Automatic annotation (TrEMBL):
Cofactors named for this entry: Mg(2+)
Source organism superkingdom: Bacteria
Listed InterPro entries: FTHF_cligase, FTHF_cligase-like_sf, NagB/RpiA_transferase-like
Binding annotation for substrate: E63
Family designation: Belongs to the 5-formyltetrahydrofolate cyclo-ligase family.
Protein name (database record): 5-formyltetrahydrofolate cyclo-ligase
Cross-referenced Gene3D superfamilies: NagB/RpiA/CoA transferase-like (3.40.50.10420)
Binding site residues for ATP: K12, S13, K14, L15, R16, R142, L143, G144, R145, G146, G147, G148, S149, Y150
Annotated GO biological process: folic acid-containing compound biosynthetic process; tetrahydrofolate interconversion
Length: 203
């Protein structure tokens, strides 16, 4: 790894620590209100309402909660697929079929109990929703937790598919450090609204 990439990696680690520290101070009431606002902001979008197959995720810890969003998308008639973390840190996918269709996986994260559909299933999604710690407002680059799982998944997504990262307020920023393997998102969804990043907006 050259010096520039080492510096980017170190900057990412510092930024992750800062954001996780900030997230730990958000109270439970604020978390619930934020999750509701994000859900409503997304469900108001026609391209979300029309998406037949949605790749989402089951939030954990201090992430903006997706549990209500996943349920709402499913109730609105979308087929929702959720990730299953593989031993190689890539993401397999399985169908969500209501609250009783998820159970703790080997890593303690809730996963669908449905048959695994393969890592390439995300290629057929009409909408992709991913977690992030931060997103760069001008480039769309997202800061993940460092495992690279979602960058690998996003690399399989078609160029015209809307990709959305869910954030708390203050996490859409300028200057997210990036490395060659990082993948941008088109939108950042916050409680205050849905924001288009520097990636070309869909027509």
């Amino acid at each position: 790894m050259n010096r520039t990439l080492v510096e980017a990696s170190l900057d990412k680690s510092k930024l992750r620590r800062e954001i996780l520290s900030e997230r730990s101070r958000i109270d439970e009431i604020s978390r619930r209100e934020s999750a509701r606002a994000i859900r409503e902001n997304l469900l108001d979008q026609p391209w979300v309402q029309m998406a037949g197959l949605v790749a989402g995720y089951w939030s954990i810890g201090t992430e903006p909660s997706t549990h209500g969003l996943v349920f709402a998308l499913w109730k609105h008639g979308a087929t929702v697929i959720l990730p299953v973390l593989r031993p190689d840190s890539d993401l397999d996918w399985a169908v969500y079929d209501g609250p009783d269709s998820v159970a703790p996986g080997p890593f303690g994260i809730m996963e669908p109990v449905d048959t695994r559909r393969g890592v390439d299933t995300i290629r057929t999604a009409a909408l992709v929703i991913v977690p992030a710690l931060a997103v760069d407002r001008s480039t769309g680059m997202r800061l993940g937790r460092g495992g690279g799982s979602y960058d690998r998944a996003l690399a399989r997504v078609g160029p015209n598919v809307p990709t959305v990262a869910l954030l708390h307020e203050g996490e859409l920023i300028n200057g997210v450090p990036s490395e060659p393997h990082d993948r941008p998102v088109r939108y950042a969804a916050l409680p205050s609204g849905l924001f288009v990043t520097g990636v070309t907006e869909l027509s």
